[in-house]
Every structure is written in C-alpha cells, then in structure tokens.
Write a structure and sequence with these properties.
heterodimer, A: 465 residues, alpha/beta, nine-stranded mixed β-sheet, 15% strand, B: 204 residues, 54% helix, globular
Chain lengths: 465, 204
C-alpha cells in the first residue's frame, strides 16, 4: 500500500520509552494516593519500571529538559550573586548593591567572587554562570529583551518553546507563578501561536492537582473518563491530517482523566524539602521560596516541566538601604542553593537510570535591565547592561566579561559608573572596544542549553561546559 | 525489597486502577509515536491549525442550550457530594439566597486562556460530569437528549458534536452504559463521556 507508514525499530523504541514515561508518572500518582512517603515512592517507581517494562530500560531514554525561569523586575543587578574580581580588590565597601570590602569576598573559580550573602551559592560554583555584559536595548518592560530574541524581535520565549515540546511528558507543561495573588503577571513571555504557561500562585497551585468531588463515585468516574479518552483519541486520529499534533491533545486528555482520580495536595507540600525554601523574610522572598518549592515538588512527580517564577521587589535604586539589599541577596542565594541541592539529590524518573533533576533542570535568572552600581546615597541609573545568572550542569561556572570603573566618586557626588565588556562567543576573549554580547546571543544560548532549536552562529559556546 | 512484593504491588495497582497499561499496547503506542516524532520545534511553524480551547463563554452556551441548565453554569460539590458553599469562592453569595460556588465563575480566568492543556481538559471533565448529572435529573432534559431511551445515543451525540456517532463510538458508549444498572446513571455516564471528550474535540 502506497501510503502506509512503516514501523521502524526507532519508532518501537520511542513507543516503549513513552510507555515507560507514562507508566512512571501514573504509578507515581497511584503510590502517592496510597500514602506512600515520597522517597520510598521514588525508589519503588524506579524499581517497578525496571522490572515491568524491561524492553524500555531506562538506559535507552534520552534525558528530558526542564527549565525554571526566575523573572525579576525592577532592574536588580546580578553581580551581587557572584561579583567580578574588581569588587574583591577594593579596599572599602563602596556601593549599596554589593556593600562589602574586598577582603570579605570568598574567591571562587573563573573570576567569580562570593560575598558573605551569596556564599551559599559557592557550593554550586562549577555550574553557576554570571554575566552582566550583555547590551540592553531599553528597559522598564514586562517583556525582557533577551527573552524574545532581542528587542521587538517577537521570537517565542525559550520557556514557551520548551513547555510546548514538553520533553518529559509532564501532566501540565508549564506554570507561571504570578507575583500578585489576583493572577496579574508582571513578567511576560512571547508565545507566538503557542499556548502560554498556566498562570498560578502559591495559594492556588495545588488546586491543579487536587481531587475534585464529582457526581459519581471514583470507580464510575474512572469508567466515564476512560470512555471519554477513547472517544477523544478516535476523534484525534481522524483529525491528524489538518490539526497540529492532535494526538498530543488526546494525550493531555488522557492525563487529565488520570489526574481526576488522585489527590496530590499533600505530596506537593513544599515544607518538607528544605527549611531555607520556606523561611527567610516574610512577603516577597518567602513567596518566592514557596513558589520554588512547589516547582521542585511538582517536577519530582513530573506534574510540570517548566516554571516561571516572578520576583518583584520594588524599584531597585542605589538609594536603597543596605539592610534591604542584603536581605534580598542573602534570601535569594540561600533559596537557590537549597533548590540546587534538592535537584542534585532527587532522581528524575523520566530520564535514564541514575538521572537526577540536576541533570535535566536549568535555572535562569534574568531582569529587564540592570541598574548600575553607585556610591552610597546616590541613585544608580539604568545600567545599560543585561545581567543573567544561569545554574545548569550544561554551563561552565564563572564570571563572564569584564567590569571597570569609569570615573571616580567625588565630593560632588557623581556616581561611580561601571562599564562592562563582553566575551567573544567562541574563544571567551574579551571583546574589543568595550563591546558587549547581544540579547540575541543570550536568547540562542539559553535555547541551546535547554535543547530548543537555536542558531549555531549566535550561541555563546564559551559559556557551555 | 523483594521482587515478589514488587510484582504483587504492581498487579494490585493495575487491578485497582486499571489504567496503567491502557496506552501501552503496541498499536496505541505507535499511534502516539507518530505525534512524539513530530514534537520538533520546527513543527510550531507549520500552517496547520493550533488547538484553541472554546473558552468559558462557549462552554456556558453549551450548558444552557444543550444541557438545559438555565444559569449556564454548574455547581461545585463538597466532599459529601452537596453543592459547595464557601466564602472563598468568587461566585458564592451568601447574602443572596445562598448561591452556590459555580465552576465557570470560579475558573473564569483559567477558561479564558483558551489554552488546550491537561488542566483545562481536567476542568472540563469535572464540569460536564456534574452538569450532566444536574441536567438529567430533570425529566424534560431526559426526554430531549434521550428521546429513544438510554441505549440510543444519536440525539445526545448530535446535540454535542453536530453529527451522528460512528460505529466505533457507539460501541464505546455501549460498553460504558453496560457498567451501570440504573437508567438515569447510564444516560448521565454517556452524557459525561461525550461532554468530557469535547474538551479537545471541540477545541480545534
């Protein structure tokens, strides 16, 4: 028959791999519903997957990709998470953003220096990349330039592309923790024609995985939904010719039916992960920690693949006092370090045997622009530079780019301005004439790290491990 | 942990849930493989239509016109299966005759995204399951949607989808109906199954 598709071994492998992923997710649901404790549950699921579906041995699976994007408004600088050598050399604490003398820094690898507040991150320095040497193209926007391939480029944001690929076949592809409890976002994504992430909030997140009371009992509901899934699948198969990936939506329908039978509320409680994620200053930072905790828990059970977490802390000017500055970086650094420690200790059951969430998950922190560093008591204007932090096994840790003073603070109160120089994307050498890397390069580099398609000639390969 | 225990546990899980292997038969898996293989990023630029969920307003119209629920919404239930009344619900108005918490009002923002995803589908399955129960508790709706009795699905299928059911679809509904003894439960189950499947079928 002319048009009949041939079954190949590759297809069979894919089929078994997908079966295993479905199996792992479903069994995880079941054990959670049965009240089996989390760590025991993970071990059991892995053991059963190996025994019951030997054809789909996990060694044959390709590790999925996951992304946590922390979108920070207000132009906060990234350098305080890991400062350049310039800061570690100064004799006095000059600036409110990084209010430490040089001697207070702990030297790390590849030009990265940790202040007492960011010191928890040193444990992960091999895979902590910081740069503030990307050229901005205007600030004060909910849509970060590097998140759309450059200002006005309208490219699909990396997290949207990844969530729609959903390489871990999670229940919900991606969620977006809005800062405001009314669901209004302060950080946007470019979605193109793709579905957006599901907006959520700490107070409502678990509702997505809460078992609802329906008009039928559990057994009857299950039968109804099984019939519904069968009807959907038949319809989807008939629509294959004209609709984009209808079977994917049929798969979503199937997962929805499964989800209706289980209550995941208890399993998603982030308080048993790490006290750092639930502690710290009240309000913004604690909300951030809880959102991170919810994200990690949901990724553990493959309920989500990607998560955007908003962190809006008020306009970040140089006149801020040191107390709030230090509280910010100490809180966020501690929470990030706790998150990475959790990722390293937790298996990703959607990947090959022995895979942890750290092997599959990238954390990116970005802001719409960065304010420059100023002297105490003076405002710091828009820095004209884009700072970014990437935590991922796929990057080589270090501080990328060079920072210089341009002019001195004086009695007249002129701020001490920092200038930033980027790196050649392949050699890592400093760019000539104080040039910076572009938001477009950053966009393609992040896409490359998380396995999305990217333009090779734009990827900053020197970032990669 | 012993292998025998693990195997026993897995068998128990499968028999109690019944779904673990439902997608694992080679034919079904290969059907899914076709979509997996087309998961590449480039597919996002194809000229095919994207999935767009019909949205809360359209859903409300179906509840009113097809299922005969005049309010165009359906009550959420508490753990005892009674209408949920809670000050935490946006739609609950205890000063106005104790109006219940209602699904479409409560989830209006989720439904307005027109996003096709597991969360939306799950919500729609809940809505239709409870809406069908509410609708078919009224005799006039039973007469309208099942005029030839509980084992004839033509009218209700046509009302939901605009077409008569095909043979394989009738068989799925027959198999489902057999699981229930009471006539009203049979009809409600059929209605809920078709309605729940609409979350994706009617979305494109």
């Amino acid at each position: 028959m002319k048009n009949k598709k041939k079954t190949t071994f590759d297809q069979l492998d894919l089929a078994f791999a997908q079966s295993r992923r479905n199996f792992v997710t479903k069994l995880s649901f079941t054990l959670a519903a049965a009240g089996v404790a989390s760590q025991t549950r993970l071990s059991l699921v892995e053991e059963l997957a190996r025994q019951i579906i030997p054809q789909a041995h996990a060694d044959d699976l390709v590790a999925p990709q996951r992304l946590i994007f922390i979108g920070v408004r207000s132009g906060i600088p990234i350098m305080p998470f890991g400062a350049p050598d310039l800061f570690a050399q100064r004799a006095e604490a000059l600036t409110p953003n990084v209010p430490f003398q040089g001697s207070q820094f702990t030297k790390g690898k590849n030009g990265l220096n940790f202040s007492p507040d960011s010191l928890p991150l040193k444990a992960h320095e091999d895979n902590l990349l910081i740069t503030q040497a990307v050229q901005t193209e205007g600030g004060h926007t909910r849509m970060f330039n590097f998140w759309e391939g450059g200002r006005g480029q309208n490219q699909v944001s990396p997290i949207i592309t990844l969530a729609n690929r959903n390489p871990s076949a999670s229940v919900i592809p991606g969620v977006h923790f809005a800062q405001n409890s009314n669901g209004n976002r302060v950080v946007d994504h470019r979605t193109g024609s793709l579905p957006d992430l599901l907006t959520t909030h700490n107070s409502t997140f678990k509702d997505n995985f809460k078992k609802a009371t329906l008009a039928f009992d559990d057994d009857a509901t299950k039968k109804i939904l099984e019939a519904s899934v069968k009807l959907t699948r038949r319809q989807a198969l008939r629509m294959q010719a004209s609709i984009k990936n209808p079977l994917n939506y049929s798969g979503d329908q199937s997962k929805a039916a499964e989800l209706l039978g289980f209550d995941y509320v208890q399993a998603l409680n982030p308080t048993d992960i790490n006290s750092a994620l639930n502690g710290g200053a009240n309000g913004t930072y604690r909300n951030f920690g809880e959102a991170l905790g919810h994200t990690l828990k949901a990724m553990t059970y493959n309920l989500i693949n990607s998560s955007t977490i908003e962190l809006s802390i008020g306009d970040w000017h140089g006149r801020r006092d040191m107390t709030s500055t230090r509280a910010h970086y100490a809180d966020v650094s501690e929470k990030l370090a706790a998150a990475v420690a959790y990722l390293k200790a937790t298996p990703d059951l959607q990947g090959p045997n022995g895979t942890t969430l750290w092997d599959t998950t990238t954390i990116v922190i970005g802001s719409e622009f960065n304010r420059n560093d100023s002297t105490f008591g003076r405002d710091n204007g828009d820095g004209g530079s884009q700072g970014t932090l990437i935590l991922s096994k796929k990057v080589r840790g270090g501080y990328y780019g060079k920072v210089d003073y341009n002019g001195n603070a004086n009695a007249g109160g002129n701020p001490r301005i920092l200038t930033h120089t980027g790196v050649d994307r392949t050699s890592g050498q400093l760019l000539p004439n104080g040039q910076r890397n572009s938001t477009r390069q950053l966009y393609h580099t992040i896409n490359n790290i998380i396995g999305n398609s990217s333009t090779a000639s734009e990827v900053i390969t020197t970032y990669l491990g | 942990m012993g292998k025998r225990f693990l195997m026993l546990l897995s068998i128990l899980m499968m028999s109690s849930t019944g779904f673990i292997y439902q997608n694992c038969a080679p034919f079904e898996s290969l059907q899914k493989t076709e979509s997996l293989a087309s998961n590449a990023v480039n597919d996002f630029t194809s000229s095919e239509l994207s999935c767009r969920f019909i949205g809360g307003n359209a859903l409300s119209t179906v509840l009113t016109n097809t299922l005969g629920l005049p309010e165009g919404d359906v009550a959420m239930l508490n753990e005892q299966g009674e209408p949920l009344k809670s000050n935490n619900c946006k739609s609950f108005n205890h000063q106005n005759g104790g109006r219940d918490c209602l699904y479409l009002s409560e989830y209006s923002s989720e439904l307005s995204t027109q996003s096709c995803n597991t969360s939306t589908f799950r919500l729609v399955a809940q809505i239709y399951t409870n809406a069908c129960a509410e609708s078919l508790s009224q005799e006039e709706n039973v007469n309208r949607l099942f005029p030839q009795g509980s084992d004839n699905y033509t009218t209700i299928h046509q009302a939901f989808t605009g077409r008569t059911p095909r043979g394989d679809e009738i068989q799925i509904l027959k198999d489902l109906s057999k699981e229930f003894e009471v006539e009203q439960e049979k009809m409600t189950a059929v209605c809920a199954a078709i309605g729940s499947s609409l979350a994706s079928i009617n979305s494109f």
